Amino acid sequence: MANHDKHDYPFDGNGQAIQAIDFPYRRSSDQDSPVPVRHPVVVVGAGPAGLSLAIDLAQRGQPVLLLDNDHRLSTGSRAICFSKRALEIWDRLGVGQRMVDKGVSWNLGKVFFHEQQLYQFNLLPEAGHQRPAFINLQQYYAEAYLVERALQLPGIDIRWHNKVSAVAARDDGVTLTVDTPEGAYQIEADWLAACDGSRSPLRQMLGLESKGRIFQDHFLIADVRMEADFPTERWFWFDPPFHPNQSVLLHRQPDNVWRIDFQLGWNTDPEVEKRPENIIPRVKALLGEDARFELEWASVYTFACLRMDRFVHGRVVFAGDSAHGVSPFGARGANSGVQDTENLAWKLDWLLKGRAGRALLDSYGPEREYAADENIRNSTRATDFITPKSEVSRLFRDAALDLAREHEFARRIVNSGRLSVPAVLHGSPLNTPDTDAFDARQVPGAVLLDAPVVRQGRPGWLLRELGPDFTLLVFGEAPAWAQSLPHVQVLRIGADLQDVQGLVARRLDAAPDTAYLIRPDQHVCARWRHPTEAAVKAALARATATAGTQS
Fold this sequence. Notes:
- The structure is a single chain.
- By secondary structure, the chain is an alpha+beta fold.
- Among the domains are: 15-104 and 135-211 and 308-374, 3-Layer(bba) Sandwich (FAD/NAD(P)-binding domain); 452-543, Glutaredoxin (3-Layer(aba) Sandwich).
- The chain has 16 helices and 25 strands.
- The strands form 5 sheets. Strands 1, 2, 8, 9, 10, 11, 17 and 18 form an 8-stranded mixed β-sheet that branches. An 8-stranded mixed β-sheet has the order 6-5-13-14-15-12-16-19, sandwiched between helices.
- A hairpin with an 8-residue loop joins strand 13 (234-238) and strand 14 (247-253).
- The two termini are 38 Å apart.
- The mean pLDDT is 93.
């Protein structure tokens, strides 16, 4: 299906080489068809969300057409903080190790007020996880590894220089007009996934909008290349002497590139602030007058917390920044977009294979809208704390910071950007509520926690053992009826997998005969102390939105 060849693109080169990759335009046979060719799934936008969705669907056997109006990877570092959950998803897509090998792993953050460190925090204090809390990796590297993986899959057709210029949505599909260097052509899609970014032309063409709040403040991102012996940690300053009355964030990236975020205030001119002669003095104030560095990339942005009312509109589904947007502090943008696509991919796959109906696909909307609301809530609170807009709110903030030097309770008030964690899908109709007593850590709707396991003498990780469909995780021997459950892999802890450190049982509050039903996107959907065939089948029907539709 794919109209690309395997190319020797320098995916492992330095940042400049990666950003200079030019993906060529190639004429598609669709452009010569007398009638629009119909595709099961068309994804628009080859960013982290669009590429992740296309790879996920292709690995499930679905042919995917991926359109992008550009021919290069992202310019500048853009999103750099990728969470443990995003890495676990990318492990399943075959690119997680590449990300970790190139990225800068970190768990520790420090908070400063004026020139003094207030406290530090560890985002992953417990051992027994394969992936770190976060890696820092320039977005162009993440996109490069995803493109390379996509080029390995015959089910993905990537078309660069293909810009969607018109969309007509109907009950039975979508017609797209696509502009190319050789003129326009039309195609049809059974399903259209809009992953085309925060400004989303598709959203505008369909007359839809995002609603929310825009914060009156400007922030400068400066990526500088330098040799520095700072530890690999997240450093955040409130009102430092080198940038008084504002905030500063420092992160390390690969290739000796450091990300510095400077709060500027609202009454500043973004175009003026982006000039090197205005950036360099700010960096020198932080690093020292004699510091040697090169300015690699800069951008000025404004905080906005927005989302669409609904993510599913007929046969058009929005994911990533096209559906929702948050401020950068907290690393919630790209990470939540990747989690959107994981939620969407298996549901669309099951629908296309005839295993489930439209109700399952529609559940993507409320589940990910709920997650977006959680991200927006946390992002808004962080932004309000970082950028107080009145003297009273500033006094409250500074009082909390003063108290945080000595008191743990005050540290819980300080908000320099609550870091991204996967949403627990409380209240999802796909969950089966507990009927047995369990602890609150792995409730239905939560992502299954990883832990080390051993299979036939070989060490591994629990999440890596989960299959593409449902998994019934049983502690001890599985009932005979479990093997006949359709599209369910049965994993026995103690037989198929050895819980050598006891962490699986501890994290899942498990005893002999305990069972967990895990969705294809690795969310828990049900759990029992002593499962019955009827209970598990009912939970499966509920998790696939087929309850009441099967005889």
